[in-house]
Design a protein that fits this description.
The complex is a heterotrimer of chains A (305), B (720) and C (163). Chain A has 305 residues and is α+β, with helices and mostly antiparallel strands. In chain A, 28% of the residues lie in helices and 23% in strands. Chain B is an alpha+beta fold and 720 residues long.
């Protein structure tokens, strides 16, 4: 019987070498690929191409701050690692801390979550919003592109056959903003898939005008939604009810939810309105959530074990 | 003399071995020289099988269908009715209908072959919903109206009362499919055994299996012995359904002359197993000028699916419970089991009662709210009492302790303050529900149909073995029953043996279903132990047997459904408090408090665990457990999209009980396994609808639907 | 197409083991079928239910999601190993005394989740316990008595959890 290869490189160099020579599926945490290729009980999953297992490559497991002050996250870092790391930006830690089940968070990797290019993925929202880039490496070198460009469309990424994601670089963090917002409406309170998740952040100038504003939504279309044009509506201006409604209207035109459109649109509208209205009162604290019951003064840590 | 109160908790006998993972479930058995089986099923909801194209079969592999049934054998499964075919022949009625079973020694090759089988159909238009079925979409396939079964009950004279009524309000309440999600999927193994067969199965009712499948080979049921294996949850989903698994295995073992084993994976189990019946209850309720109910009429529709099987009994129980914990001067209900092209519905904790109880509780809330009244105050007017007339013209035999239970729940939940303080539509709400559950088989069924028997066997070393067919599926019965025997015999519980039943060595004490095990079989064992007691020290080895006897004076007519449907009910009161996120519609359950009357508790910790689990399962049914069927296919097929509650979805529950010993139960115990499911959904929806100030008439209500109601729902005060 | 066999070595419950097999086979199947760790229960096959939970390098993971090739060189503990430890035994006994067990199918995974939680947080609050077991689905108990049992295990273990 014809046999298929499986590669288990011991170093990143070896992995890139294999990638340059073979058309392989890169498997890290396994939380997506082992499910999408599973068969029934007791059977090995069936892949249509050879697999390269990179779960334990030490080069892909680090988190550090580079000379530019950017947070660099190894492609193989798990959600749990990110949620627990104070080096990682707040929005990303929140998203990572609420991804799937406790055990899954010890397997699922950030690169997998990006490469999966699912509109319901948990990390792309914060990554889009914080202008994060992926570092794509191959034996011939490396390049960096914005996560929002890397994810081309539903289930499609801009990756050459010889390349691998090796790092995710996040230039901004909550420190760059006055108020932050991250809210996931899941299928239940834990161990949940996103029905909609909204990430927001705002920074004011000393004169009270908006210096920067960002909003990104997941599960609201074929890919994560963000629009610099919509955000720009309020940049350089003072917030007013009319302008806030303009942002809401503008963002409503950006998203394109197919299932549950009424719910997804209305929840998005309400969360944007809520965040901007509260931020406009310049309250103490940093985190704004969906209603006073959840309103938090200070900067809560993500909930991790 | 009893040494101490039997209610005092003991350590469950199976707790350590289960925690250590050393207990074997069906998937953990390594049967020697055993083949693997996989079912080949219909992929369309309705049509004619035109052709089955098989790949080339290697030696030792075979595809088995109804054509392999030997002469004299019958292609049906006996599950109360006998209409459910073991294998589809020419036509298919639902997605997932068994067409054949492929068997062979290597499970990978079996699966490879299964994937290569191509079945060609002539597709027909399916009826999926209750409305589709009633409209005979695609043409009726049961009778000329798609009505599988029907019944009608009346107390007083509803038409007369309606003529005198000030007004009649109408409302339709709907409930959805629910999947059991027992953590252990279905599985079984059938081995040739001498001139008969031995079955190992994860199942609730081993005697049901052999009775159901023996006709396939036209053999006496006693030729098949069924050994129940430790069962990882069931909730009704392994009451009749294991017959659907074991029938094809029996035929395969017969054809191959070898053992055949089959374990479902989760996706397979969700897509291709029975569910809770979706329901639609249409109320017409007559009110006098003061808003009091003078008559309640209801039409109850259950989505039965492709085959009737056990559904008429489910529908009956639904109709018997449609007046809930209330007594109205005139009551009428008519039940319809509607044929559709969906997987046949079957038993699920509550067995038809939860649907109508949810409907009547919700309808009562709405009648109250449209008059601006607190639902609790309105419901209080109609509580049934001892001697009160039931929907079947029987009487309530026992004392009804709803006032005492209500008192406990009001105190624990601070209901009265919260109900006043949380204005309708404020985002906060508290709701309350009342419910009951008739224990055991309806009427005199325990004597007329089941004739349950149980035995106690004393060995020389003083140990006593309980012999009965009751299974442990998590509910704790294999601790409860030894506890009863040990208590009467005044011996340590460790001296009582109670093995997972094997039909070849235990008498048929009836199914482990209908909340009957403690109430009925517990009493059989209590009586047997009482008979054994005076002989225990005198005789070395002996056996005593008891059989169920129905008390006189409580007539029941199964042909007209008139009389005492149940001798003893379990009763419950549940309050739920919620908070709704105004931005997103997300609901946070802030508190759950319940009180139950299960007679005298045999083990307070086991009962506590049942309450916790049943109540949470009920909240799941009403909230996140969406199971849609589109075009005959279930849309949720895995545990990531069929959403059952996690540990974070509900806070710690407040649990209380009232003491109300039941005359005919062991130590005064009544059934409770289903009761505890029956009311939390209604309390949750009551709380939620008050929080958003909108009327909710269908469950489940996931977050997106909460938003839908917030935007488009009808105000609670609007006229019905 | 079958995948080529490789020799895979890892530590299982403290002992070095090796197996020549298709590295894409699911770790759950290898643990159950080749090493007889039948306490590793399969509930959902997609990392949703937590019934198959094990510890890999001290972290709780679900082996239904892990190809055995990824276990090469790693340290794996299943319920069969955990139950033999002092900490594991404290949890098992607390589960039995606290009424945590009903059908039992989720329970070995739940014991692993409790072990992982208490090893990281010896004195968890009610909320922290609920978070700790939120990846383990139980359909029988409504979780309350499991939570109480974990509190009991925390109390009984005391200083042991800080080791």
């Amino acid at each position: 019987m014809e046999e298929m290869m499986c590669y288990i490189p011991k170093t990143l160099e070896e992995a890139l070498e294999i990638k340059s020579r073979h058309d392989v599926i890169v498997l890290a945490g396994g939380s997506d690929l082992m499910v999408s290729n599973k068969r029934t009980l007791g059977l090995a999953p069936k892949f249509d191409k050879p697999v390269m297992i990179v779960r334990n490559l030490p080069e892909l497991r680090g988190i550090y701050i580079n000379e530019e002050g950017e947070c660099c996250i190894g492609a193989g870092c798990t959600s749990a690692q990110i949620a627990e790391s104070t080096l990682c930006p707040w929005h990303l830690r929140q998203a990572a801390s609420r991804m799937g089940a406790v055990a899954l968070r010890n397997s699922a990797t950030i690169a997998g979550n990006i490469a999966n290019a699912s509109p319901k993925g948990d990390t792309p929202g914060p990554l889009y919003m914080l202008d994060a880039r992926v570092k794509l490496s191959s034996v011939s070198g490396s390049r960096e592109i914005l996560v929002s460009d890397f994810i081309v469309k539903f289930r499609t990424i801009d990756l050459r056959p010889d390349e691998m994601i090796t790092e995710v670089i996040v230039p901004l963090s909550e420190d760059d903003f006055d108020y932050v917002f991250w809210h996931k409406v899941g299928t239940r309170k834990a161990n949940a898939i996103s029905k909609i998740t909204l990430s927001q952040a705002i920074k004011f100038n000393a004169d009270g005008t908006v210096k920067d504003y960002r909003v990104a939504a997941t599960a609201t279309g074929a890919k994560t939604n963000r629009s610099r044009d919509v955000e720009s509506i309020i940049i350089g201006k003072r917030l007013s009810p009319e302008l806030i409604e303009d942002v809401i209207k503008g963002f409503d035109d950006v998203i394109s939810p197919r299932a549950m459109p009424e719910f997804r649109r209305e929840a998005t509208r309400r969360m944007i309105r809520r965040f901007l209205n509260v931020a406009d009162t310049h309250p103490e604290g940093k985190v704004i959530d969906t209603y006073d019951g959840y309103y938090v003064v200070g900067q809560p840590e993500p909930r991790v074990l | 003399m009893v040494a101490h109160d039997i209610s005092k908790a003991v350590r469950r006998l199976d707790a350590v071995s289960k925690s250590e993972g050393s207990v074997k479930y069906i998937a953990d058995y390594g049967f020697e020289d055993c083949l693997w089986g996989r079912l080949v099923r219909s992929s369309i909801p309705r049509g004619i099988i035109k052709d089955i194209k098989l790949p080339e079969m290697p030696d030792g592999y075979r595809f088995i269908t109804y054509k392999d049934i030997p002469d004299g054998g019958h292609n049906y499964l006996h599950m109360i009715a006998t209409d459910w075919k073991c294998f589809a022949e020419n036509d298919v009625r639902y997605v997932g209908e068994t067409i054949g079973i492929i068997v062979g020694p290597d499970r990978t090759i079996v699966e490879d072959l299964r994937e290569k089988i191509v079945i060609e159909y002539e597709e027909q238009e399916p009826a999926v919903s209750i409305d589709d079925g009633l409209a005979c979409k695609g043409g009726a396939f049961i009778n000329d109206d798609n009505i599988h079964c029907h019944l009608k009950l009346e107390v007083g004279n509803v038409d007369e009362a309606f003529r005198k009524a000030d007004r009649i309000v109408e409302e339709t309440i709907e409930t959805g499919f629910q999947e059991h999600v027992y953590l252990e999927t279905n599985g079984a193994c059938c081995m040739p055994d001498g001139d008969g067969y031995k079955i190992y199965a994860s199942a609730q009712c081993p005697f049901y299996i052999r009775k159901s499948i023996a006709p396939l080979l036209n053999i006496d049921p006693s030729k098949i012995s069924v050994q129940q294996t430790t069962t990882g949850g069931a909730f009704g989903g392994k009451e009749h359904f294991p017959d659907v698994v074991c029938g094809p295995l029996l035929l395969a073992a017969y054809v191959m002359k070898k053992g055949v084993k089959m374990i479902f994976d989760r996706e397979e189990d969700i897509e291709n197993s029975v569910k809770r019946h979706p329901s639609k209850t249409v109320f017409r309720t007559g009110l006098d000028k003061d808003g009091n109910i003078v008559a309640m009429d209801s039409k109850v529709y259950y989505n039965v699916g492709g085959y009737l099987s056990s559904s008429f009994v489910v529908l009956q129980r639904g109709c018997f419970h449609v007046t809930g914990c209330y007594e109205f001067p005139n009551m009428r209900t008519e039940g319809f089991g509607v044929a559709t092209n969906t997987y046949p519905s079957c038993a699920f904790r509550g067995f038809g009662a939860p649907q109508t109880l949810f409907a009547v509780e919700t309808h009562m809330c709405h009648i109250a709210e449209m008059q601006g009244l607190d639902p609790l105050e309105y419901k209080k007017r109609y509580f049934i009492k001892q001697g009160g007339t039931t929907s079947t013209n029987g009487k309530i035999v026992e004392k009804v302790m709803i006032p005492e239970m209500l008192d406990q729940v009001l105190k624990a939940s601070d209901y009265e303050r919260k109900a006043k303080e949380y204005k309708w539509g404020s985002g906060k709400g508290i709701g309350i529900s009342f419910y009951n559950h008739g224990g055991a088989f309806t009427g005199n069924g325990e004597q007329a149909i089941i004739k349950g028997r149980a035995k106690l066997h004393k060995f020389k070393d003083g140990t006593v073995e309980i012999l009965c067919s009751q299974t442990e599926m998590g509910q704790g019965f294999h601790t409860i029953l030894p506890k009863i025997a040990a208590h009467i015999l005044e011996i340590p519980i460790e001296k009582v043996i109670f093995k997972d039943p094997d039909t070849s060595r235990v008498p048929d004490s009836g199914p482990t279903a209908a909340s009957r095990s403690t109430m009925i079989v517990g009493e059989l064992v209590e009586r047997a132990a009482t008979l054994m007691k005076p002989r225990y020290d005198k005789e070395e080895e002996f056996e005593v047997e008891t059989q169920y006897e129905h008390p006189d004076g409580y007539p029941w007519d199964q042909s007209t459904f008139q009389g005492y449907a149940y001798l003893g009910y379990g009763w419950g009161v549940c309050a739920v408090e919620v908070e709704v996120d105004p931005c997103t519609g997300e609901v946070t359950t802030k508190g759950v408090w319940s009180s139950h009357d299960c007679g005298h508790l045999i083990d307070e910790m086991i009962v506590h665990g049942q309450v916790n689990g049943g109540v949470l399962q009920g909240i799941g049914w009403a909230s996140t457990e969406v199971l849609k069927n589109v075009g005959g296919h279930f849309k949720q097929t895995s545990m990531s999209d069929y959403i059952v509650p996690t540990s974070m979805d509900c806070p710690k529950q407040g649990v209380s009980f009232v003491e109300n010993p039941y005359e005919w139960g062991p130590f005064g115990a009544k059934g409770m396994g289903e009761l505890v499911f029956n009311g939390s959904g209604a309390a949750y929806i009551d709380a939620l609808s008050r929080a958003i100030g909108k009327r909710i008439t269908a469950i489940p209500v996931p977050t997106e639907d909460v938003m839908g109601y917030m935007l488009n729902g009808k105000d609670l005060k609007e006229a019905l | 197409m079958e995948c080529k066999e490789y020799k895979i070595e890892f530590t299982l419950n403290g002992k070095p083991v090796s197996i020549a097999t298709n590295p894409l086979r699911r770790l759950i199947d290898v643990l159950r079928d080749d090493f007889g760790c039948l306490g590793v229960k399969e509930g959902c096959s997609e990392g949703e239910c937590g019934a198959c939970s094990i510890l890999m390098n001290g972290r709780v993971v679900t082996p239904c999601l892990i190809p055995v090739g990824a276990a090469n060189g790693q340290d794996i503990m299943t319920i069969e190993g955990i139950k033999e430890t002092e900490k594991g035994s404290i949890i098992v006994q607390a589960f039995a005394d606290g009424g945590a067990v009903q059908c039992g199918f989720c329970i070995p995974g739940m014991v692993i989740a409790a072990y992982y939680l208490l090893s990281r947080n010896p004195n968890p609050t009610e909320d922290e316990i609920r978070l700790g077991i939120s990846g383990n689905i139980c359909r029988c108990t409504g979780y309350d008595l499991i939570v109480e049992s974990i509190k009991l295990a925390a109390k009984r273990g005391g200083e042991i959890w800080k080791r």
